[in-house]
């Protein structure tokens, strides 16, 4: 039986949106999600190794087919494992997850317990140079449709660059993402143009990165950007 397809069909419309709300509420912080977000009478999360290993357990079997008596074979627990894998892949598509069945009610346990290991990839909202787009005022203003922040950012950037930057120019959905870009990011950023022309995921893939004067200025002022580029 293809439990993967069955699992996706079961959770995609009702269960997935609940997890997406929890993920958004805790800003994608898995440690908080599994210590605070997944904490109710019916299910419980636990952080085993911060940033990497978690546990999720259910007091009752959550499978509708088991609940209504259509299935009783312990192999059905694979469907639950696949549903967790699918939800995690939708929450964080740039990461890889391993999910292991620890024990289940159908296997004679007192709870259904799953162990989750997260192998985080690079966030899509990391720019080619390694800067975090989620911390950029242009991205924040765009995401929240914050006109006041657009005005403030345009004024600051115009002064810093001695250029006629207007509030309507402050729209960006991320350096490496599809969608809108600021005029600077789209047309004027030499780092972005270089990475795109060479097919690099980030500047970390470039053999000349340690001597590049363009990205070197950013990395000198923001060591975290260099670290992000190397992931």
Secondary-structure blueprint:
Layout: H1 3-11, H2 15-25, H3 30-37, E1 43-49, E2 53-58, H4 64-67, H5 77-91, E3 96-103, E4 112-119, H6 137-144, H7 147-161, H8 183-188, H9 190-198, H10 213-221, H11 223-229
Antiparallel strand pairs: 1-2, 2-4, 3-4
Main attributes of the structure:
elongated; 44% helix; 11 helices; alpha+beta; 231 residues; four-stranded antiparallel sheet; 4 strands
Could you please describe the fold and organization of this structure?
The two termini are 37 Å apart. A hairpin with a 3-residue loop joins strand 1 (43-49) and strand 2. This protein has helices at 3-11, 15-25, 30-37, 64-67, 77-91, 137-144, 147-161, 183-188, 190-198, 213-221, 223-229; strands at 43-49, 53-58, 96-103, 112-119. Helix 6 packs antiparallel against helix 7 (147-161) and helix 10 (213-221) packs across helix 11. It is an alpha+beta fold and 231 residues long. The protein has a 4-stranded antiparallel sheet.
How much helicity do the residues have? 40-55%
Major pleated sheet: 4 strands, antiparallel
| Total E-strand runs | 4
Specify the number of helices.
11
Provide the structure class: alpha+beta
Sequence stretches where pLDDT stays below 50 over 5 or more residues = none
Q: What is the overall pLDDT average?
A: 92
* Helix/strand order: HHHEEHHEEHHHHHH
- Describe the strand arrangement of the main beta sheet, using strand numbers: 1-2-4-3
Shape: elongated
What would you report as the Rg, rounded to the nearest angstrom?
Answer: 22 Å
The proportion of residues in beta strands is: 5-15%
Terminal CA distance reads 37 Å
């Amino acid at each position: 039986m293809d439990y993967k397809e069955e699992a996706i069909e079961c959770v995609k419309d009702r269960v997935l949106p609940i997890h997406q709300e929890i993920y958004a509420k805790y800003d994608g912080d898995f440690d908080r999600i599994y210590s605070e977000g997944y904490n109710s009478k019916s299910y419980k999360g636990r952080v085993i190794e911060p940033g990497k290993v978690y546990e999720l357990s259910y007091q009752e079997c959550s499978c509708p087919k088991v609940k209504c008596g259509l299935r009783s074979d312990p192999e059905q627990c694979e469907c639950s494992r696949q549903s967790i894998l699918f939800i995690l892949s939708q929450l964080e598509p740039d990461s890889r997850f391993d999910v292991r069945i620890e024990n289940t009610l159908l296997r004679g346990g007192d709870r259904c317990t799953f162990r989750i290991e997260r192998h985080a990839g690079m966030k899509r909202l990391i720019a080619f140079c390694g800067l975090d787009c989620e911390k950029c005022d242009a991205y924040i203003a765009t995401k929240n449709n914050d006109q006041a922040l657009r005005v403030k950012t345009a004024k600051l950037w115009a002064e810093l660059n001695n250029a006629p930057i207007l509030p309507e120019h402050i729209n960006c959905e991320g350096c490496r993402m599809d969608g809108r870009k600021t005029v600077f990011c789209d047309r004027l950023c030499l780092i972005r143009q270089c990475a795109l022309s060479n097919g690099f995921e980030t500047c970390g893939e470039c053999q000349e990165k340690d001597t590049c004067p363009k990205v070197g200025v950013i990395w000198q002022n923001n060591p975290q950007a260099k670290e992000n580029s190397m992931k």
